[in-house]
Amino acid sequence: MRRTRTLTAAALAVAAGVVLLPTQAQAQVQVKAQARTHVLAAAGSVHLYKIYYDSPGTDKRSNASLNAEYVQIRNTTSKAVSLKGWTLVDASNHRYVFGTYSLGKGKTVTVRTGKGKDTAANRYQNRAAYVWNNDKDTATLKKANGTKADTCSYNSTKVDYKMC
After folding, report:
1. CA–CA distance from 87 to each of 67, 68, 141, 149, 151 (Å)?
2. Sequence-distant (≥ 6) Cβ neighbours of residue 41 within 8 angstroms
3. CA nearest 132: which of 65, 43, 51?
4. pLDDT tens digits, residue range 123-156?
5. What is the pLDDT of residue 24?
6. Beta strands in the chain (DSSP E)
7. Cβ(86)–Cβ(141) below 8 Å
8. Cβ distance 137 to 153 under 8 Å?
9. CB–CB of 127/113 below 8 Å?
10. How far is CA 150 from CA 85, 106, 110, 164, in A?
11. Per-residue pLDDT reduced to its tens digit, 101-124
């Protein structure tokens, strides 16, 4: 009887161990996956967020209409990023170059086509003509060293903006 109980207890322990091992392995895999996700989220990026390519109303080249055409750039990193020397360019090579400017962590900057006074939230290209085509175009954001940080294209006249 004692031997039967010992074997039964041993069998239960082995069975429990078999059940626990996959659970522990699954938990380890899950922890590693969460760690990778956390690292990716912490790393973030500076990227194109939105292109408002067809300003409301008639295109009369008024400064208000030009400034209603814009590109938003978002910083999802955990620290401020200097955009000095970064460029925003369209398919026709209209180029905006950032001067001394730092985009705060979690912040978005709007690059407007028309004229205005630069602020932390808005930068102005100071143009008298539209940049972004109303039907299709491609925005490219490049770092100061010329490497591509992001690109966003649109091909529609049904809406006035593109979320990148």
Report:
1. 18, 20, 6, 10, 12
2. none
3. 51
4. 999 999 999 999 999 999 999 999 999 999 999 9
5. 52
6. 46-52, 70-75, 81-82, 87-89, 95-97, 102-103, 108-112, 122-124, 136-142, 148-155, 161-163
7. yes
8. yes
9. yes
10. 15, 17, 16, 10
11. 999 999 999 999 999 999 999 999
Alpha-carbon gap, residue 34 to 125, rounded angstroms: 41
Tokens representing residue 53 in the block: 């390519």
List the structure tokens of 19.
């059940």
Task: Tell me the torsion sign for CA atoms 113, 46, 49, 150.
Answer: positive
Neighbours of 95 (CB within 10 A): 13
